[in-house]
Amino acid sequence: MLNRLEAYDDAVPRSAARAEEFGPLTLFVREGEGWPYYARPALGHTGEVTVAAVQAVRARQRELGAPEAFEWVAETTPGLRAAVEASGLVVHEHPLMVLTQDAEELPVLPEGYGVRMVGDRDPDLDGAVAASYAAFGATPTPGAAEQVGARIAAGLTRLAAAFGPDGTALSAGQHQPVGPVSEVVGVGTRPEARRRGLGLAVTAALVADARAHGVETVFLTATDDTVAHLYARLGFRTVGTALIAEPAGDGPAEN
Q: How far apart, in whole angstroms, are the C-alpha atoms of residue 204 and residue 198?
C-alpha cells in the first residue's frame, strides 16, 4: 500500500508542476496559479539523504521564492528526517490514512445545509474555490478558480462544497485521481461555519464520488489524531505517518 501511495505522490504534482532533480530529492515547482508545491524523495530512493542535498533544495526554493517545504512518508523514507532537521527545518507528524471500509455513519448536516459536487461550469465554482482559501486564512490568487475549473474539465480534480441556507459555499475540498488512486486534499471550512460537520460531509461526498468513478484506493492526511478519529467514522484507518517539514514558525496546513 505504501509503495502505491509513493508512486501516486510522485505522479500527482506533475500535472501542474515541473520536476527538478537533486539526487535523492525531487523539487516540484508550480507552473501557473495555485498552491505552491514542495520537495520530496525521488521515486525509488531508499537510502540515506545528506544534509547537503537538503540544503541544495532549500537554496533553490529560496531562489524561486517558493516555500522551503518537504513532504514525505516516514515509513517509506526513514533516512530523510535526520537530514531535514539537521538543516534547520521543523518536522510535523500527521496520520496518513487509507479508506478500508464503508462509513460507520454518514454526517448529518443542520437543516438548510447541503453538499454537492461542483463542476467546471458551475456558477458556484468561484465561491467554492474561495471557501477553500478562506478556510486557511487566504484569498484566491488571480485565476485560481479558472485553473481549478480547467483541472476539473481535464479529469485531474474533483471538487465538492457544502453550502449554507443562503447558498454561500462554506466548506470545500478536492480529490485528485491518478489512475486507481486518489487523495482527498484541501478540505477546509470557513472559520464562521466550523463545528457543524461540514468538512466531514465534504469528505464523505468526495469519497462517494471517487468510488463512483472507479477509484480503488482513497487516502488522505489528517491534521492530528483528533481529526483522524473523525475520519475513521468514514472508514479510514491509519497506515503510516506523513511528515511535513518547514522553517520554524510556519504551521502546517490543516486538512
A: 10
